[in-house]
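During the second year of the project, the team shifted from modelling isolated chains to modelling whole assemblies. The rationale, set out in the original proposal, was that interfaces cannot be judged from single-chain predictions alone. As a representative example for this report, we include one of the complexes processed in the last quarter. Its constituent sequences, exactly as entered into the pipeline, are reproduced here:
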Amino acid sequence: MTVPPAPAAVGAALDPAGPPPPGRRGVARRLWADRNGRIGMVVTGVIVLGGLAGLFGLLPYDTVAQDVAVRLKPPSMSHPFGTDQFGRDVFSRALSGIFASLRVAVVSVAAAAAAGTLVGVVSGYAGGWADAVVGRLTDVLFAFPAILLALTVISALGRGWPETTLAIAIVYLPIFIRTARGPTLTVRNAEYVKAGRVLGFGPLRLVGRHVLPNVAAPILVQTTLAMSWAVLTESTLSFLGLGTQPPQSSLGLMVADGRTFLTTEPWMLVAPAAVIVVLVIGLNLLGDGLRAALDPAEDRS
Amino acid sequence: MTALRAVGGRVAGLAGTLIGVAVVVFALLRLLPGDAIDANLGTQAGLLTAGQRAALRRYYGIDQSVPHQFVTWIGQVLHGNLGVSVNSGTDVATLLGSAIPVTVELAVLATLIGAPLGIALGVLAAGRPGGARDLGVQSAGLLGLALPEFVLASVVVAVLGAVFRYFPSAGTFVSLSQSVGGNLSQMIYPALVLAVGLAATVMRTTRSAYLDVARSDFVRTARGKGLFPRRIRWRHVLRNSSVPIVTMVGIQFGYLLGGTVVIEQVFALPGLGRLLLNAILQRDYAVVQSAVLLIATGFVVVNLAVDLIYRALDPRTAET
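Output from the structure prediction step:
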């Protein structure tokens, strides 16, 4: 924050700061105090650590190289989740699959959240025809069921994980625009913003100091929930053969491979499926916990 | 009168949205590298002389301006001419016509199973919030939301094969008009899988809507009057929480129209989702374009219907 010039400094003293944004420490503590938030943090944290191991190559086995000598081995000390039909270690492949899923989910949701917040706040604050145009565009994107929009984008761009990332980002863009636009509209006409405008504060300061803190909480909750949906969608698209391409590992691809062996070698399907379920539950609980931690109204309930 | 005008406004908005959808679908296919000539002739397109290429461009209408092409395409679509599938050589309208009933039936069956189940579980959970039953139902709901459809569907198919010696993808599809029993025996398992996710979502909505109403004064009055708890539960509380529940069921039904891709693929059902997926995999763009346009139209129309039902259920919303 730069030091404001003299007239604004007078105003700053009078500046009726809106609801004070909860301090970062405060949110973390409240999240930990919430049972859902605590479980969500721990579960998500453990899975993310597994994904990081995949990213840095800290895996017990190569995820792509085949070793026919140990194909379709049940879980054991050397292969905790067993091996697949090519003798690849399912545990190592699951960890690198977590990375593949999180890579798509994090990049797509971050891009959608950043772009959606920018567009939603600017159009909501500006109003007028710009807002009307943005409103119509989001209506059009909402006219596609989510998975259909993702499939349509992939049909135009082609298969692969970068394409999947862009597809999921486009699906989530209108949701973030709406999430950011709603609170912006409310705050824009609030007394304290009007007062700031009367005091001569520029739009950048009003948006930065008063609008964004109000938008941050719903966007943060939406981001967590969007992550869980993005993980599900990434694995669904990979399952259908449209996302991550073999021989790279992906949780969705592993489930697709494991189908044929489900009755004889169930670990091939159960391991990646369990990872997806646990990760999605963790992200959902984290989202619920964040909602409770960030909502002052839910303080006493 | 005002209500009529409000409905008219929504229908006009729907038309605008559909034009936008058509533009998006059209624009996405413009993004593709190459044109219709490359798509149909492949590498042989390079052997064409400039004159042949110009003649072909005129034949496909791609020598016209892009807005002109768009208007021509929309005009054809509105006349029911959706083009021909490159892969099967069949009329796209015929392909869609045979796929629609499968997907709609699947969505209807899943809703008929999932919605009552979700509502019942939601009421059960909301009866004593924080209690053992609430915790159990909520945990099951979270699991239902987190369990991917493709995992559940794969497991169901494998179990059907191993235990009951029933292989959905092996036999030919029996339509509802051919044999009701034969059709239902094929559709029931995919419908059940779809119903799990739907029931979990509806359960969550029911639970929170029920708890909102249960806190209100008139419910306390009813309890004070000594009405039977069961009567309060169904007549007073559930009835007044019906608006968000009906809305959620409607939205979920709309999603199913475009969200049966995975289920149709795993259970080998010849519905819209499978048609679309195969068209995407085989780059059959005439089919992709029409299928996406059709599904989005269905989704928007269902959402409009939900909106109108919402107004009818809660007269207060019609006034605004």
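Chain A is about 70% helix and 0% strand. Residues 92-298 of chain A form a domain with the MetI-like fold fold (CATH 1.10.3720.10).
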